[in-house]
User: Which sequence fits this backbone?
């Protein structure tokens, strides 16, 4: 069938957000052969609802982009930056109150703000991703109310989930809601709210999670397998435990099998797949996303990957605030010594997510040029006016795309063979080639800067 949303499906840009399935029942969200949620259309007849679904899909040409959405949702917010979007204030720091920092990701703000919205009667329910022991899937959205323990929700989750059931719950149950969402999911939610008055009236706050890219189920399975739990025995996994004495970006990983055995905790940096730049098991759609900071969310929460914070193993957050209610809660939290947050510059926000911005700006520019040269369909993206990407950087981006694409296929083969080393050895050769390419580029770049500085002295 013709239409922008079918171009998304045919060209494999779907990220399984579930927006289309919420609008048009003939769309189903299912796992593909590689463990990624994707939309499948089960009817060959055209429906008028497809026209609405096309305006909701985050990778459709018919949906509003992040700037257009922000101009509507945050009309009163004047400050705007090309990288982080609209903002009222930007912070870095951590939660002092209770166990939020210890049991949450980084500085613990994501769970703290959900709890504070409930406590201050600004919402009746919050939806966050949890480890779902009652389901065949490891993670899914769950509804929490004021009497529930917010800390039961998972820390950062690198596993596919969908909004479909969460949206249906909001539709069927009256109340005021807050929800955590990745940038693409936040975009979906905002676009739905523009076409669905019930969602618009009930969904009061979106807590955005800063994102590099989505992962397939294989990412969790690979980590667990290296820890001694094969994919078919995996029951639970923790991606973001905190390891005393190590840096904040040394994410602690452990797995639990179906018999309740818990593995030792290892730093993600010691595991294959732990280097985010390699992009193992990445969704193709993520290669064509230009939103790092969840620009359509009321507040964006990320890791403070900055020199002044990185040595603290308990972690710190960076925040971009766009909603006045949330800004007021933060100010009160600081005043009452529940929060330890300081104002931070836009440059520092960008620096904290430098790799993500480089990949979703410069890298995206290269990938768009490559797609256009090959006459491949891609949704229209925002223009960040990036020209003349360095030749060596192009090689790096291209190699990363190859690694990501290959990782899906190799892991399926490894599972069929029940042979983890098959995947590790094949992947190691590819990541080593990327490492050499990146090292050569970094050396040449440093030498050029030294030469340029000496020349102008």
Assistant:
């Amino acid at each position: 069938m013709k239409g922008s949303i079918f171009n998304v499906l045919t060209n494999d840009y779907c990220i399984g957000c579930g927006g289309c399935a919420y609008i048009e029942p003939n769309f189903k969200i299912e796992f593909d052969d590689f463990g990624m949620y994707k939309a499948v259309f089960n009817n060959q007849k055209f429906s008028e609802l497809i026209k609405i679904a096309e305006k909701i899909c985050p990778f459709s040409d018919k949906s509003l982009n992040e700037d257009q959405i922000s101009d509507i949702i945050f009309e009163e917010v004047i400050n705007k930056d090309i990288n982080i979007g609209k903002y009222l204030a930007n912070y870095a720091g951590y939660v002092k109150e209770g166990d939020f920092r210890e049991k949450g990701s980084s500085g613990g703000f994501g769970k703290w703000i959900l709890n504070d919205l409930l406590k201050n009667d600004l919402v009746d329910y919050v939806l966050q991703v949890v480890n779902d022991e009652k389901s065949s899937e490891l993670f899914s959205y769950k509804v929490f109310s004021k009497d529930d323990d917010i800390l039961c929700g998972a820390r950062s989750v690198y596993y596919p989930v969908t909004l479909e059931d969460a949206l249906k719950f909001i539709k069927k149950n009256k109340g005021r809601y807050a929800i955590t969402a990745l940038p693409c999911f936040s975009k979906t939610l905002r676009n739905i709210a523009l076409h669905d008055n019930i969602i618009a009236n009930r969904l009061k706050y979106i807590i955005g999670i800063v994102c590099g890219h989505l992962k397939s189920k294989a990412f969790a399975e690979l980590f667990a397998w290296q820890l001694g739990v094969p994919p078919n025995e995996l029951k639970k996994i923790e991606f973001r435990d905190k390891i005393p004495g190590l840096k904040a970006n040394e994410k602690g990983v452990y797995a639990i099998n179906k018999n309740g055995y818990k593995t030792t905790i290892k730093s993600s940096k010691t595991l294959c797949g732990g280097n985010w730049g390699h992009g193992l098991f990445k969704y193709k759609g993520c290669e064509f996303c230009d939103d790092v900071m969840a620009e359509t969310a009321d507040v964006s929460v990320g890791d403070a990957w900055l020199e002044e914070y990185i040595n603290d193993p308990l972690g710190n957050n960076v925040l971009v605030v766009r909603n006045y209610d949330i800004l007021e809660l933060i100010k009160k939290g600081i005043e009452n010594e529940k929060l330890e947050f300081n104002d931070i510059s836009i440059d520092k926000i960008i620096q904290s997510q430098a790799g993500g911005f480089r990949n979703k700006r410069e890298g995206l520019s290269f990938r768009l040029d490559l797609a256009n040269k090959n006459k491949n369909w891609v949704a229209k993206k925002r223009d960040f006016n990036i020209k003349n990407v360095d030749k060596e950087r192009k090689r790096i981006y291209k190699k990363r795309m190859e690694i990501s694409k290959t990782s899906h296929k190799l892991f399926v083969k490894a599972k069929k063979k029940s042979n983890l080393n098959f995947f590790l050895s094949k992947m190691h050769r590819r990541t080593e080639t990327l490492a050499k390419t990146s090292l050569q580029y970094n050396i040449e770049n440093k030498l050029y800067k030294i030469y340029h500085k000496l020349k102008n002295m």
Summary: Residues 420-455 form the longest helix (36 residues). Confidence is low (pLDDT under 50) at residues 443-457. The two ends are 63 Å apart (CA to CA). The first strand starts at residue 27 and ends at 31.
